[in-house]
Structure formats: structure tokens, C-alpha cells
Amino acid sequence: MKKIFCAVILIFGLGCFTANSSAPTGSEKLTRMLQVSTLSLLKEGNVRFVEGKSFHPNQEISRRAELAAAGEEPSATILACSDSRDPVELIFDRGVGDLFVVRVAGNVAGLSELATMEYGVTHLGTPLLIVMGHSKCGAVTAAVKGAELHGHLPSLISLIKPAAEKAKNNGPEEECVPRAIELNVWQQVENIFAKSALVREFAAEGKVQIVGAVYDIATGKVQWLGQHPEIDRLLAEAKSDTKVQDAHAAHDATPQAAEPVKATEPAKVEADVPVTPSHAEPAQAQAQYPTAHIKAVRAVKIEEAAPTQATVKTAAAHKTSPH
Predict the structure, then answer these.
(1) pLDDT tens figures, 81-129
(2) Minimal CA–CA distance to 189: which of 76, 91, 113?
(3) What is the largest CA-CA distance in the chain?
(4) What integer is the mean pLDDT of 50-65?
(5) pTM of the predicted model as reported, rounded to 2 decimal places
(6) Inter-residue contact 14 to 20 (CB < 8 Å)
(7) Strand (E) or helix (H) holding 27
(8) H helices present in 97-137, as ranges
(9) Among residues 132, 160, 136, which one has the least CA distance to residue 146?
(10) Do 98 and 58 touch, CB atoms closer than 8 A?
């Protein structure tokens, strides 16, 4: 009986070890929590905006002073249209420093927009990237109807044309523009995956979630589309591409046999741990940003940076030692 009991314990322990080895890390869980809570925050803010009950958080004098001193730390990157009827911060009832907004006619993902989104996702660390179209979009309407365009507009509209063609080939003609507006959201998500290796890598690693949305300029309501209908394929391709890039990088970093390996001094490393702003907001609980999640994420960053800092300090002490 004792042998059977020990065998059961051993099997159970191995099962736990196997399960834990494939389980998400603490930082991955926290990032996922932050993505969910940020999306909930924006949804709640939009409900208040639609009902005319906005809290207008983070618009105090102290908030501006805080961000000027500590730097920005937005919770989401949003690609939206430049249409004046599409005021992003107001739509989500957010304030100064809450959102990293990229606005361009037709909410297209061109070169400048891609670079700006990369900055938001990889440098500012926003866990959520939203691509948001809107009703009665002039740029999408022009692409659908083949309007005569001048200057640089043809170049911009060319990024919308694939969605416009799909819309014209599917469904009733009177619904073509609304259909094209939604399809254009997915077209721009595909452009992001296809043209931005940085965002593609972050998406493959789960560091950023890309969500589509369409804003109704008449009601003020945001229709949430979720992730791309073929997100599994896009992520699989992104992961495959990341592996290929890593393999190429490893190959390039390998010294050739004919070349002597030069000793290098240890690099100076600075931990990228941002100052913790207070994110002070009005007393209404619904408008408060989930600071517990932010602090937890920072704690993981500090913990991950600590071994590197210790190694650098040891190397520096050894270099300055007289022995």
C-alpha cells in the first residue's frame, strides 16, 4: 500500500511539474489582466459618454504637472480617423495622458502611422492597440465611389481600396459604405501585421492585443468588433516570422572561425523601470484606472531587471578593484 501511495504522489508531482512548465509566466498573466481591464475601462467610459454622464477624469492641474514630471504612460494606443466628429478621448471618457492616439483620414496604417503605433506599443508599452473606424467616413466613401482625388489623397485612399473592393463585391449596394468601413478596420489590422515587424513580434508574444472597433458619430456608441476574424492565422504567421528573424540574428551574431573573438567590456545597463505616477482620478470608482495591475506589472519589470543590474555592478566593482 505504501508503494502504491508513493507512486500516486510521484505521478501527481510529475503532472503538476508538466502543467506548470507550460503555464503562462507571471508577467504574461499580468499583461493579459491589464489588456482585459483596459478594454473594460474604455467600454465603461464610452457608455458614460453615450448617456451624457461623463466623469472627465484626469483633467486636473495636478494631472498635467504629474505627467510633465514623470512622463507619459498611456493605457492604450488607438488608430482612429481625423474626422472632427471622432474625438477619441471624449468618446472613451478619458483624460490627459490616458491614451496614445494616432489620427489620420480613413484610419489607415501608412508609414508614419505604423511608426507612431510602434512607438506606442514597444516604447510606451501599451498592452492594447485599437483600430477604430467610424460611420459616414469620407475617406472610405471616396474609395467606394471612386471619387476624383488630388494631391496626396490618391496615395492615402489606395490603402483603403482593397476593403472597398471587397465591400462592393459582397452584399447590397446601399450597405456598401458601412460594410467597407468595417472591412477597412480589418484591412488596416492586416496592414499592421504585414508591414510592422515590431508590432507583429509583440502580438505574437502576447505583449499587445489588437482590437477592432467602429464609432457611430450619431449615437456616440462604439461597436466593438473584437480581434481580427483570422487572428489565429495572423498570430501563427507572426510567430513563424519571429522564429526566422531570431534564427537569422543568431547566425549573424555567430563569429566566423577565421576571425579572432575580441573581448568586450561589459555594457552599461540601465533598467527601464518608469516612475510610478499616482493616476489620481475623481471619486467615482468606475473611472479609476486599475493601478493595482500597473503596480504588479512594474514589480515584475523590477524583478526581471534586478539580476542584470547585479551583474553590471559586480563587473564594475571587479574593474575598479586594485587586485
Answers:
(1) 999 999 999 999 999 999 999 999 999 999 999 999 999 999 999 999 9
(2) 113
(3) 86
(4) 97
(5) 0.73
(6) no
(7) helix 26-51
(8) 111-118
(9) 160
(10) yes
What nine digits make up the cell of 247?
534564427
pLDDT single digits (tens) 184-212: 999 999 999 999 999 999 999 999 999 99
- 51 DSSP β-pair partners: none
CA distances from residue 49 to 52, 64, 88, 114, 135 in whole angstroms, order as listed: 5, 22, 11, 29, 17
- Burial label for 203, CB within 10 Å (0-12, 13-18, 19+), is buried
Q: What is the pLDDT of residue 314?
A: 45
121 grid coordinates: 506599443
**Structural domains in the chain, sorted by start:** 24-249+277-289 (3.40.1050.10)
Residue 217 near residue 127, CB atoms below 8 Å: no
Q: How many helices (H) and strands (E) does the chain have?
A: 12, 5
Cell numbers that stand for 237 in this block = 504567421
C-beta separation of 140 from 132 below 8 A: no
| Stretch among 92-101, 170-179, 239-248 having the lowest mean pLDDT | 239-248
